[in-house]
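Data availability excerpt. The first of two example chains:
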Amino acid sequence: MRRVWRRFAYFVVLAWWLGCAPPGVAGTQHQREPLNPLEIDELRDAAQEPAARIKLFIQFARARLVSLEQTRADPKVTDRALQTHDKLQEFLEIYDELNDNLDTFVERKADLRKPLKEVIEADTEFQAKLRALKSSSDAGKEAAQYQFVLDNALEEVDGSVQDHRQLLAEQEAAKRKKK
């Protein structure tokens, strides 16, 4: 439930920002699909398999953070702040989809114990990478261009860690109850 409120607050701030943006800025902003066609096909193939689908979302989110690290380490990149922003936004959208899929599979009463353990491990990794980016000394002035999305990504992962652990505990308790 807390994740729903965070997402709501995110969209309220986004709507406010777009409303305050100079004319033409809101119109030029377009939503880009965070997944490439191959990734979409892989997800489609795993549509009915909770464990496989969740594993794919973890893989895609991890790939976005690895790509982000490579971009930030590449001295040839000229628009580092913009690319950092875009990759963080893609990560956040994929991570939100991961959480939406978890919610869907919970509603379907799927056994998510094994995938949730992988999600919790990935959460720890994602937190470390996002915190490292936030505290990096080379961020400086360019950080202002992606600070908002970085803060949102950190909030989402931090909040979801607790949700994922609680869900795992509930799933394990339900399984013990059935025995």
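And the second chain:
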Amino acid sequence: MLTEKDRNRVTKAVDDVKDEMVNFLQDLIRIDTTVPPGRNYPQGADFIAGKLKKFGYDVQKIVVPEDYVKKCLLAVRGQDEGAAPLPRVNVFARMEGRNPHPNKHFTGHFDVVPPGEGWTVDPFGGEIRNGKIYGRGSTDQKSGIAASIFAVEALKRGGIKILGTVEQSATIDEETGGFAGLGYLVEEKYIHQGKQDYVLYTECLDQDGICIGHRGAVFFDLRVRGKVGHGCMPQFAVNAIDKMTWVVQAIISELRPRIESRVSSTPIRPEGSKASNILPIWIDGFAKERPAATVPPLCISYWNRWFNPEEKIIEVRAEIRNFLDELKKRDPQLDIEYLEHYFVEPVLVPTDNEFVKAYQSGVKSVVGHDSHFKLSPGFDDQRFVVLNGHIDKCIIYGPGVLNMAHLPDEYVPISDLVNSAKVMALATAELLGVG
């Protein structure tokens, strides 16, 4: 257990690196790592790797094979993009202490979504206004990478020698599924049961929230086939858009209320996301050809089905397919296909362990009140560690304002960045031991 004197030394050490941490985050924001398409990943990886190497880590830059990347993009988007993808590079760093274990691994992603419209500042400027750092990725989630790197560095500079081992990874493509990022590191067993004792994913969940899991999802196409014909003689054709419109309305009016009636008892935030749901994301009726007077023989719609930890994937799939079978009985002309792109199982990790308790203690010590548990309304890279790497001592904690993620004028308060780094530093010292 840390003494009060130790805790004061840790928090002062983080205060002492504040300006350097802020400058690092500003510079990282200024590297445009937008996905799609995966811009400037090598530059982002070089920048992070350089800092970690300077701070005493053994650093690897892990290039993902092009064929693997193509397979990942096909899974996410359901189509072969043809051209060679931009290079995918992850960073993995290790700093062994006196003992190889306990081993605590920090991980975060440095890819960002496109900035979009509506900004009043440069989305890649890293500008500071009124105590906030602005820019795409400031909250989601380059600030988490900055906080974890400088939390550990603060311990070193403050003369607080930890006994265990610290690792850091910075990954890519989280915003498009994470398969070539943290998913690849887990698949290649850089991160896996027996290697790491604790994994902290530094996603933005607010400075006093501890995330213990996320919802599940199924992403799928519905493909309706009709019969081509001339627009002036539709009686000789079967209009695929007409059929799809009927399917969409049936799902919305009949299946959706049934699904939305299932409200989770877990602490999913925001509150409105506790209800499971199903929704269309896009619809395409012969759009590429853009015919002037041809009845479309094909219509495709793309769907999300979000489900809670109380539901099972086998039941989710069966419900959708059974409903489509019912629609076919109502309309014998309906030719519809269900094509699943990928699915994510829900995650819910145990909370009665030393890892979670160290972060609860750190939050209370730094921000002055109790932390709260939450589950992410979406899904994230935590699933790779828990479900594929079989490490259940994996939680999400990091700076950033959750409801600012993906918005114009995204920002992170500097105070949140500093406080989160203090919590990470305190928990690291508590878990790995101080010599």
